[in-house]
Amino acid sequence: HDGRFSPQNYDFHIYDFEKCCNRVFWLGRRALLLDDGRALARAEAWLDAWFVDETTSLYPHLNHAQFIPGERDGWAVGTIDFGTRLPGVIDPIRARGGRVSPRVRQGSDRWIDTLLDWLLDGPYTPWLVGTDRNNIGTYYDLLVAVIAIHVGREDVARQRLSRLAPDRIVTQLDA
Predict the structure, then answer these.
(1) CA–CA separation, 117 vs 120, rounded Å?
(2) CB within 8 A of 13, min separation 6: which ones?
(3) 154: CB partners within 8 A, 6+ apart
(4) How far apart are CA 46 and CA 104, in angstroms?
(5) Is the pLDDT confidence value at 147 over 90?
(6) Which residues 6+ apart lie within 8 Å of 153 measured at CB?
(7) Does residue 1 carry a pLDDT above 60?
């Protein structure tokens, strides 16, 4: 069933991850537009907790995305959750690149690069790459491209984007 996921996800991580992404996005915008050091420090604290600090950070994989207790540990469609949210975290890191502390910038980039490796070679990759007539595959391509550009792997971004229009968007619009 398209769009079906366990409401118990909100008992675990997804609500908190959404909050992290939203806060980093808006604090990052405030820091950039208003040259607000306090907003920058608050955004960095969120980035540190979720992506850098080894005692609190997420694992850089989506093995348990959209899990359904008692039914499945996770599944590929959970990629759409990150595909719609993580770019909002990456943009402020890029925009504030020179101002973000080296520890947070390097730690976030390392986490993001590791996630990219997982997206390219993880257990869900064959399904995600082969999902031509599905918005989940489109979000997968966009997520891979955004991450690859952020970590300086433009060749990966080009490869994903080169198939985005003919294999994803056109097949979805033709019908």
Answers:
(1) 5
(2) 58
(3) 148
(4) 10
(5) yes
(6) 113, 116
(7) no
